[in-house]
Amino acid sequence: MSTVALPDSPVALLTIDMQQGIQRVKLPRNNPGAEQQIATLQQHWRNLGWPLVHIRHVSRQPDSVFAPGQSGALFQPELQPLAHEYVLEKNVTDAFCHSALERWLHVRGIRQLVIVGVASENSVEATARTASNLGFGTLVVHDACYTFDKTDFAGNPRSADEVHDMAMANLRDEYAEVVSCTSVVERFASQS
Question: Could you list the residue ranges forming a coiled coil in this record (predicted)?
Answer without folding.
Answer: none
